[in-house]
C-alpha cells in the first residue's frame, strides 16, 4: 500500500490529478485520459514510483544524512561554553587564581582554564595628545558614563598619541588584558582574524629605565575600530615612573604611526585588567605533566580529594595506576602527596623508595581529578566489540574538546594498563568512537584491540550553551576561594552554544548554497560587495553597462558625512574583493555615489484642531525622498502616487492641491511623467519644500 505522505505533501491521487491537468499544456494530440490508455498507465506507474522514492528518502537514517553532509564539508559545529572576562576589584597586592577555579553567577558555573597570576595594578588615567595639546579621556574608564570619545580626534593624523597611566608597574614578562568597547554608529563588516589593521598602525611602548621601549601587544580591536581584547606583555626592561606636567605614573603609550581611517576611532569604555573564564562545569579533568619526579598542581578540584594518578614508565608504553602512600613506605607503584596551600598540592615519585617511578618522557604523569558525584559514576561499562555499541554518559551537553576516556586492559604481567582516548581517533587497532554531545552518549565505531576493555571517565565538562552569554555587570562568586577581592564582568558573555543538530547543519548547508561566492548575476555582485571585510558599506547597486561590456557597481559607504564618498582605499579594496570572485569574461568598475535633490511644491489643506501639521507633512516627505538613510536604493524610481497617498493618509491632511515633485537642478535624475527616475548610481534626497499649509476650506471636498 502506498504511503500517503507526499511530494511535496501530496497524496498519490493529488499527484495524478496534477499530472493529468498538465497534459493539455504540452500536447493537443493526447485526448484519451481513460485508465485503459497506455499513456495513462505509464503516468500512473511513474507517479507511484515517484512516491515510493520519496518514501524511501524519508526513511534514510540520520547517520546517513550526516555522512552525506560531511562529504560536502558540513560537520556539526561543536558546542562550547560562553567566554566572559572578569575584573578583580579591591586587590591590594598581586594574587594567584588556581586553574579550574569555579565562579558562580546564580546557578551558572564559570571556570578558569589556566592558573593565573593577577596584578593589583590598575589603569587610573587615559590621556590623548596631538599637535593641539593634551586631552583627559579618563572618563572612558567609568562604565557608567558611556561617552563617545574620538581618541585620536575627528580627523586622525599620524603622530597622535594615547597614554595609559598605571598606578603600579607590571613585572617584566607579565601580561595584562584590557578590553575596549568601541562606539562607532556605523555598521562595519567583520575583520577576519588573520587580517591586520587596515586603516591605522599603532606602535605601543612602555616607559622604562631606558626611556620608551617597544612592547608586544596583541590587538583584537584592529586599531580601536571594533570591540576586542588588548593583550599587553611588559618588556624585559624595568618599568620606571613617568613624570611630566600632565602625567605622573607608569605609562604605556600608543603612537599612531599611520592614519588612513575611514571613520575616526571612538571609545566608550576601557576596562581595567581582566582574566577570562569559560562557562562550563568540570566534573572530571586530567592534568598532564612532563616532569616525572615532583609534580605540583594548583587546581581547586584537588580539594575534593578524589584523585587517580597514572604514570608512563617506558616510552611507547601504556600508563600504570599509582596509589597514594599512607603510612610506612613499601615497594610498589606509590606516590607521596603534600598539600601546600588551598588548591596547591605536590605529588612526589621516588624510585629508590618505592622501586617504581614515571620515566623521563613526554606526558609521563597524568592526574585525574573527580568531583564527588563523578567518583561514584566514573565507570561507564565494558567494550563488547559489536558494531555501533552505545554507552550512555552520566551527563548531557558534554564539551567535546575537554572529553576523554580511560580504557583499562589486562597487562601481560597480570596487572592493569591504561590508555587515554579522545573522540575521533581513527588509527588502525585503536579505539575509535563518536561523542554525541547533546545526548550525552558515545557510539563505538571500531573497538580495535580494546574488546573487553573497561571504560572510565578521563575528562568530562558540561555547558549550558547560550544560557552562559550573561549580561554585563554581574558579580561572580568564587567557590572555596577566600579573599576580599570582588569579581565583576564589565563585558557581556559571548560565544556560548550547544552542538549543532543535524537539522541545524542542513539549514546551514542550504543557506550556503544560496549564498553567492562567485559573481554572476547583478544580485551576486551586490551581495558580495556588502561583505568586503573591514569596510562600512550601507547600500550597493550593480548593473551591466552594455556599451562598455562591464558590470558597474555603485556603493554607498556607511559614514556620518552628509553625502558620503568612496575613498581611493575603499575603491581599491572593493575592486580587489570583486576581481577575485568575478568570471574571467567580466570586467568590474566601482562607481562613486551621486546625489540629487528633489523639490516638492504645492498647497496642502489641513483639518482644524490638529497641531504640528507642517512637521508631520515634512517628516513624510523626508522619509519618502531620503534614499541615503532610508530603504530606497540607487536608481529606484520615485513614484509620485506613493508620495501623494502617503501625505493623504495623514490624519491632519484634508486634501492636496497642485502638488508636484521636480528635479532640483543637476543631471543625475530625470522626470518620467509624474515620477522621477534617478541614474543607476544616484541617490535622491529632499531638497526645497515649497509648501503652503492652509486650513481646510471645504469639508465636502
Quick rundown:
With 701 residues, this protein is α+β, with helices and mostly antiparallel strands.
Describe the protein in words.
The protein has 701 residues and is an alpha+beta fold. Helix 1 (12-26) packs across helix 2, helix 3 (62-71) packs parallel to helix 6 (502-513) and helix 9 (613-625) runs antiparallel to helix 10 (640-648). It starts with 11 loop residues before the first helix and ends in a 6-residue tail after the last strand. The relative contact order is 0.10. Residues 1-7 have low confidence and may be disordered.
What are the SSEs and their pairings?
Layout: H1 12-26, H2 38-58, H3 62-71, E1 83-89, E2 95-97, E3 102-105, E4 108-111, E5 116-118, E6 123-130, E7 133-136, E8 149-150, E9 161-166, E10 175-182, E11 200-208, E12 211-214, E13 216-219, E14 228-233, E15 242-243, E16 248-259, E17 266-270, E18 275-279, E19 281-289, E20 294-298, E21 306-311, E22 320-324, E23 334-341, E24 344-348, H4 351-354, E25 365-370, H5 372-375, E26 379-382, E27 389-392, E28 404-410, E29 416-421, E30 432-436, E31 441-446, E32 454-462, E33 475-478, E34 486-488, H6 502-513, H7 522-529, E35 537-545, E36 550-557, H8 568-579, E37 587-591, E38 594-606, H9 613-625, H10 640-648, E39 653-663, E40 669-672, E41 675-678, E42 682-695
Parallel strand pairs: 22-23, 36-37, 38-42
Antiparallel strand pairs: 1-18, 1-34, 2-5, 3-4, 3-33, 4-18, 6-7, 6-9, 8-17, 9-16, 10-14, 10-17, 11-12, 11-16, 13-14, 15-16, 19-25, 19-32, 20-24, 21-22, 21-25, 23-24, 26-32, 27-31, 28-29, 28-32, 30-31, 33-34, 35-36, 38-39, 40-41
Helix pairs in contact: 1-2, 3-6, 9-10
Amino acid at each position: 500500500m502506498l504511503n500517503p505522505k507526499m511530494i511535496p505533501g501530496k497524496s498519490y491521487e493529488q499527484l495524478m490529478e496534477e499530472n493529468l491537468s498538465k497534459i493539455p499544456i504540452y500536447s493537443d494530440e493526447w485526448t484519451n485520459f481513460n485508465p485503459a490508455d497506455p499513456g495513462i498507465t505509464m503516468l500512473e506507474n511513474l507517479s507511484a514510483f515517484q512516491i515510493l522514492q520519496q518514501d524511501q528518502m524519508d526513511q534514510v537514517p540520520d547517520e546517513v544524512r550526516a555522512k552525506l553532509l560531511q562529504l560536502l564539508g558540513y560537520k556539526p559545529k561543536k558546542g562550547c561554553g560562553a567566554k566572559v572576562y572578569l575584573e578583580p576589584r579591591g586587590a591590594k597586592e598581586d594574587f594567584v587564581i588556581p586553574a579550574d577555579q569555579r565562579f558562580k553567577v546564580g546557578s551558572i558555573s564559570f571556570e578558569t582554564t589556566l592558573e593565573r597570576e593577577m596584578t593589583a595594578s590598575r589603569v587610573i588615567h587615559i590621556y590623548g595628545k596631538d599637535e593641539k595639546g593634551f586631552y583627559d579621556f579618563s572618563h572612558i574608564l567609568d562604565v557608567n558614563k558611556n561617552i563617545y570619545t574620538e581618541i585620536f580626534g575627528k580627523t586622525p593624523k599620524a603622530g597622535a598619541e594615547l597614554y595609559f597611566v598605571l598606578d603600579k608597574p607590571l613585572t617584566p614578562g607579565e601580561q595584562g588584558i584590557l578590553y575596549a568597547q568601541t562606539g562607532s554608529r556605523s555598521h562595519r563588516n567583520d575583520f577576519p582574524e588573520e587580517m591586520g589593521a587596515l586603516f591605522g598602525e599603532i606602535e605601543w611602548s612602555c616607559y622604562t629605565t631606558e626611556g620608551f621601549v617597544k612592547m608586544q601587544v596583541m590587538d583584537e580591536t584592529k586599531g580601536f575600530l571594533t570591540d576586542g581584547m588588548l593583550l599587553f606583555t611588559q618588556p624585559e626592561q624595568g618599568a620606571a615612573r613617568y613624570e611630566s606636567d600632565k602625567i605622573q605614573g607608569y605609562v604605556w603609550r600608543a603612537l599612531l604611526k599611520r592614519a588612513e581611517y575611514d571613520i575616526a576611532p571612538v571609545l566608550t569604555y576601557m576596562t581595567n585588567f581582566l582574566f577570562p573564564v569559560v562557562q562550563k562545569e568540570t566534573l572530571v579533568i586530567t592534568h598532564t605533566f612532563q616532569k616525572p619526579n615532583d609534580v605540583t598542581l594548583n587546581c581547586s578540584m584537588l580539594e575534593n580529594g578524589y584523585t587517580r594518578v597514572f604514570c608512563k614508565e617506558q616510552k611507547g608504553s601504556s600508563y600504570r595506576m599509582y596509589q597514594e602512600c599512607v603510612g610506612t613506605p613499601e615497594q610498589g607503584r606509590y606516590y607521596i602527596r603534600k598539600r601546600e596551600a588551598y588548591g596547591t598540592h605536590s605529588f612526589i615519585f621516588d624510585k629508590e623508595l618505592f622501586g617504581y617511578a614515571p620515566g623521563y618522557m613526554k606526558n609521563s604523569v597524568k592526574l585525574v581529578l573527580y568531583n564527588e558525584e563523578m567518583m561514584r559514576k566514573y565507570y561507564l561499562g565494558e567494550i563488547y566489540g559489536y558494531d555501533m555499541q552505545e554507552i550512555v554518559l552520566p551527563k548531557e551537553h558534554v564539551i567535546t574538546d575537554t572529553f576523554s576516556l580511560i580504557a583499562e586492559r589486562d597487562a601481560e604481567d597480570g596487572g592493569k594498563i591504561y590508555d587515554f582516548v579522545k573522540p575521533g581517533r581513527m588509527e588502525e587497532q585503536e579505539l575509535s568512537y563518536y561523542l554525541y554531545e547533546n545526548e550525552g552518549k558515545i557510539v563505538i565505531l571500531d573497538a580495535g584491540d580494546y574488546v573487553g576493555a573497561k571504560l572510565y571517565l578521563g575528562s568530562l565538562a558540561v555547558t549550558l550553551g547560550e544560557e552562559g552569554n550573561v549580561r554585563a555587570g554581574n558579580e561572580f562568586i568564587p567557590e572555596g576561594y577566600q579573599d576580599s577581592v570582588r569579581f565583576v564582568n564589565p563585558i557581556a558573555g559571548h560565544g556560548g552554544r550547544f552542538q549543532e543538530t543535524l537539522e541545524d547543519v542542513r539549514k546551514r548547508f542550504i543557506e550556503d548554497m544560496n549564498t553567492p561566492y562567485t559573481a554572476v548575476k547583478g544580485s551576486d555582485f551586490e551581495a558580495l560587495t556588502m561583505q568586503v571585510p573591514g569596510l562600512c558599506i550601507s547600500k550597493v547597486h550593480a548593473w551591466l553597462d552594455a556599451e562598455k561590456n562591464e558590470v558597474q557597481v555603485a556603493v554607498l559607504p556607511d559614514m556620518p558625512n552628509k553625502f558620503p564618498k568612496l575613498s581611493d582605499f575603499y575603491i581599491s579594496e572593493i575592486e580587489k574583493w570583486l576581481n577575485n570572485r568575478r568570471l574571467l569574461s567580466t570586467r568590474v568598475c566601482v562607481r562613486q555615489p551621486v546625489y540629487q535633490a528633489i523639490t516638492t511644491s504645492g498647497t496642502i489643506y489641513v483639518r482644524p484642531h490638529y497641531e504640528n501639521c507642517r512637521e508631520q507633512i515634512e517628516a513624510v516627505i523626508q522619509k519618502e525622498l531620503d534614499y541615503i538613510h532610508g530603504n530606497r536604493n540607487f536608481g529606484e524610481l520615485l513614484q509620485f502616487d506613493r508620495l501623494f497617498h502617503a501625505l493623504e493618509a495623514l490624519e491632519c491632511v484634508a486634501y492636496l492641491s497642485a502638488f508636484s515633485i521636480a528635479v532640483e537642478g543637476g543631471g543625475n535624475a530625470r522626470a518620467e511623467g509624474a515620477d522621477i527616475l534617478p541614474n543607476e548610481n544616484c541617490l535622491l534626497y529632499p531638497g526645497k519644500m515649497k509648501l503652503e499649509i492652509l486650513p481646510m476650506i471645504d469639508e465636502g471636498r
